[in-house]
C-alpha cells in the first residue's frame, strides 16, 4: 500500500481504496457482475463496516468515490470469504444438533417425465486455432495478435493432472438416470466397515452420515458448485443451451447448426424434449467454462411459471419446489443470452452488438474476475491470466505456437515468416496454414469454392464484403462506443484515433524520437520514422539492390534512377 500512496497526487479519478489513478467504477453505483447485483459501498459496509464519504473540505478530489478493478476483485474475495465463514458456522452448529440438517440434504424433486440417455453425434476434432472453435478466445472476429484477450485452454499440460472424484457430480448424475426409478423408496445406507472396537446402536450408526455429507460438500470447489447449480437449473427449467460455431448456434446434443435463434429453439423443443444433463456440459472443459444458455422463453419445467433471470429461476426451484441442492451463495455456471433474429443484444446491459461472435465476447467480459497486476486487464479464468502474463509481461518476444523466445520483435517476425507450422490459422479441408484470418478466407473461396462471406448490418441492412469495414460501420453509426472529436465532431472507433486527430487541431506533438528528438503528432508516424535509425532496411531496389528504410525513399530512387521500371509495392 505504501508504494501506491507515496507518489499520489490529488485528482478527480482516484481510487478511494488504494489511491491509484485511472478510469474506475463509482463506489455507490449499482453494477451487475456474473448476473448478481453489486454496490461496492454496501459491500464495504457489510464486510468491513467501512464507509466512504465525500470530502467536506472541497478540492479537486472532494467528490471522488471511485474504486479500481483490483480493489473490486479483493473486495469480492473478502465478501465471499465472509459468507463462507458464516455458512461453515451454521453447518457446525447444525452438526451439534444432529437431527436438523439431514433432511435438508435429502430433499429432491422429480419430474413426471423421465430424462432419457441420448447418444451424441461424434464431432470431428478441430484445430484449436480455427474460427469455428466454440470458445470465445478463438472466434473468427479476432486476429492472431489479439489472442491473449481471452483464455487459451491449449496451454494446459498435454498429460492432464489426475483429479479427485467430484462426489456432487456423481450424486447429480445418479439423480438424473437412476434416482427417478426409485424416487419413492427410502435411501438405504450401505453397510460400512466398523470404525470402532465396539458395536454401536442403530441410532448412533446413523450419526456419522450427516458429517460425511457436509465434509464432502465443503471439499467441493466454487467451480464445481457453480456447475452443480447450472446442472440443476438446466434439468428443471426451459433454458436453451448452445455453443457457437462461426455465426451459427450449435446444438450441444447433436451438433446441428442453426443461424436463426428461433429455428434453434424449435429444434430443441421438437427433438430434445428428453435429454441427458451432463451431455450439455461435455464441451465445458473441467467445468471451468460456463454454459451459454438462451433465456428467451425461461419457465419452470415443473409448474411452467415464467421467470426473467437465472437467479430468479434458481430461487423459485429452491423455495417452491424444494430443490435444496441449489446453493445461491455460489454462482450459477451459465452465461445468459436473449437471442433475437438479427438483433444481438446483451442480456445483462442491453448493449447492441454487430454479430453473434461479438456478443459472446462481450457477454464473457461481464464475468472476468482475474486481473493482471501489471496492466489491469481482466480475464475469465486463472489459466487465461497466466497465459497473458507469459505472453506480455515476461520481457521476451515469444512465439505463441512453439514458445520459442526471441531477443527482438524483428527476430520473432522473421521466425513467423519462415515457420509455416507456427501460423495461426488452419484450413480444416486441406490442412494449409495461414498467417491471417483474411488469407484463410481467401483460400476457402478460391480453392474450396466456399461462397464469399458477406456481412449485413442488422440495423440498416447495408452489406459489406470486409468484416473490418462492417464492424467499423456498426461502431460509428449504430452504437455508443465511438469517440467524438471535441473540435470538429468527427467520430472515431478508438480513443487513440480521436486523440491523434485532435492533435491536428491543437498542434500537439506528444510522440518523441529518442534518437534524434524529433516530435510527431501520431504514433504511426513515429514508428515509420524509427526505421531511419534501424540497421534493417525493409525496401530494396530490385535493379541495384540499394536498401531504403521507407517506401517513399524507394519510390523516389526508382523515379530518378530507373524511370523505365514501374514500381509495384
TrEMBL record:
Residues 13-95 form the ZAD domain. Keywords: Metal-binding, Nucleus, Repeat, Transcription, Transcription regulation, Zinc, Zinc-finger. SUPFAM superfamilies: beta-beta-alpha zinc fingers (SSF57667). Residues 370-398, 455-483, 483-510, 511-538, 539-566 form the C2H2-type domain. Residues 125-149 have a biased composition (Acidic residues). Zn(2+) binds at residues 15, 18, 68, 71. It is found in: Nucleus. Residues 179-196 have a biased composition (Basic residues). GO terms for cellular component: nucleus. It comes from the Eukaryota. Residues 118-156, 179-218 are annotated as: Disordered. Coiled coil: none annotated. This is Zinc finger imprinted 3-like isoform X12.
Amino acid at each position: 500500500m505504501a508504494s501506491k500512496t507515496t507518489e499520489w497526487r490529488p485528482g478527480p479519478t482516484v481510487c478511494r481504496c488504494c489511491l491509484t489513478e485511472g478510469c474506475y467504477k463509482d463506489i455507490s453505483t449499482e453494477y451487475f457482475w456474473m448476473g448478481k447485483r453489486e454496490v461496492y459501498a454496501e459491500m464495504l459496509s457489510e464486510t468491513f463496516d467501512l464507509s466512504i464519504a465525500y470530502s467536506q473540505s472541497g478540492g479537486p478530489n472532494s467528490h471522488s468515490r471511485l474504486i479500481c478493478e483490483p480493489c473490486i476483485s479483493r473486495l469480492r474475495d473478502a465478501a465471499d470469504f465472509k459468507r463462507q465463514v458464516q455458512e461453515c458456522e451454521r453447518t457446525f452448529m447444525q452438526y451439534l444438533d444432529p437431527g436438523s440438517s439431514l433432511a435438508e440434504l435429502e430433499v429432491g424433486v422429480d419430474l413426471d417425465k423421465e430424462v432419457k440417455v441420448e447418444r451424441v453425434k461424434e464431432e470431428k476434432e478441430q484445430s484449436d486455432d480455427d474460427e469455428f472453435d466454440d470458445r470465445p478466445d478463438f472466434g473468427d472476429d479476432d486476429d492472431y495478435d489479439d489472442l491473449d484477450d481471452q483464455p487459451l485452454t491449449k496451454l494446459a499440460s498435454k498429460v492432464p493432472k489426475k483429479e479427485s472424484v467430484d462426489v456432487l457430480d456423481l450424486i447429480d448424475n445418479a439423480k438424473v438416470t437412476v434416482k427417478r426409478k426409485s424416487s419413492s423408496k427410502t435411501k438405504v445406507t450401505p453397510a460400512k466397515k466398523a470404525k470402532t472396537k465396539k458395536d454401536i446402536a442403530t441410532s448412533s450408526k446413523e450419526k456419522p452420515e450427516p458429517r460425511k455429507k457436509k465434509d464432502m460438500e465443503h471439499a467441493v470447489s466454487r467451480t464445481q458448485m457453480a456447475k452443480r447449480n447450472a446442472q440443476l437449473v438446466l434439468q428443471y427449467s426451459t433454458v436453451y443451451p448452445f455453443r457457437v460455431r462461426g455465426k451459427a448456434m450449435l446444438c450441444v446434443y447433436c451438433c446441428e447448426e442453426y443461424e436463426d435463434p428461433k429455428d434453434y429453439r424449435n429444434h430443441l423443443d421438437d427433438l430434445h424434449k428428453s435429454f441427458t444433463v451432463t451431455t450439455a456440459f461435455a464441451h465445458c472443459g473441467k467445468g471451468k467454462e460456463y454454459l451459454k444458455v438462451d433465456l428467451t422463453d425461461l419457465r419452470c419445467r415443473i409448474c411452467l411459471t415464467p421467470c426473467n433471470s437465472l437467479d430468479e429461476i434458481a430461487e423459485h426451484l429452491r423455495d417452491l419446489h424444494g430443490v435444496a441442492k441449489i446453493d445461491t451463495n455460489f454462482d450459477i455456471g451459465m452465461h445468459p443470452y436473449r437471442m433475437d433474429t438479427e438483433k444481438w443484444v446483451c442480456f445483462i446491459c442491453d448493449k447492441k452488438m454487430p454479430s453473434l461472435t461479438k456478443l459472446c465476447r462481450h457477454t464473457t467480459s461481464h464475468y472476468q474476475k482475474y486481473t493482471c497486476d501489471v496492466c489491469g486487464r481482466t480475464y475469465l479464468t486463472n489459466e487465461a491470466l497466466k497465459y497473458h502474463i507469459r505472453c506480455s509481461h515476461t520481457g521476451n518476444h515469444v512465439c505463441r505456437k512453439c514458445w520459442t523466445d526471441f531477443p527482438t520483435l524483428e527476430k520473432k517476425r522473421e521466425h513467423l515468416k519462415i515457420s509455416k507450422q507456427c501460423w495461426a490459422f488452419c484450413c480444416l479441408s486441406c490442412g494449409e496454414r495461414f498467417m491471417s484470418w483474411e488469407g484463410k478466407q481467401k483460400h476457402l473461396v478460391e480453392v474450396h469454392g466456399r461462397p464469399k462471406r458477406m456481412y449485413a448490418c442488422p440495423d440498416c441492412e447495408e452489406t459489406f464484403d470486409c468484416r473490418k469495414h462492417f464492424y467499423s460501420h456498426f461502431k460509428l453509426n449504430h452504437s455508443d462506443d465511438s469517440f467524438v472529436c471535441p473540435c470538429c465532431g468527427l467520430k472515431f472507433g478508438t480513443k487513440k484515433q480521436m486523440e491523434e486527430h485532435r492533435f491536428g487541431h491543437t498542434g500537439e506533438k506528444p510522440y518523441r524520437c529518442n534518437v534524434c528528438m524529433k516530435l510527431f503528432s501520431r504514433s504511426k508516424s513515429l514508428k515509420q520514422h524509427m526505421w531511419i535509425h534501424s540497421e534493417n532496411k525493409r525496401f530494396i531496389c530490385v535493379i541495384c539492390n540499394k536498401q531504403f528504410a521507407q517506401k517513399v525513399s524507394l519510390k523516389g530512387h526508382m523515379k530518378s534512377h530507373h524511370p523505365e521500371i514501374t514500381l509495384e509495392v
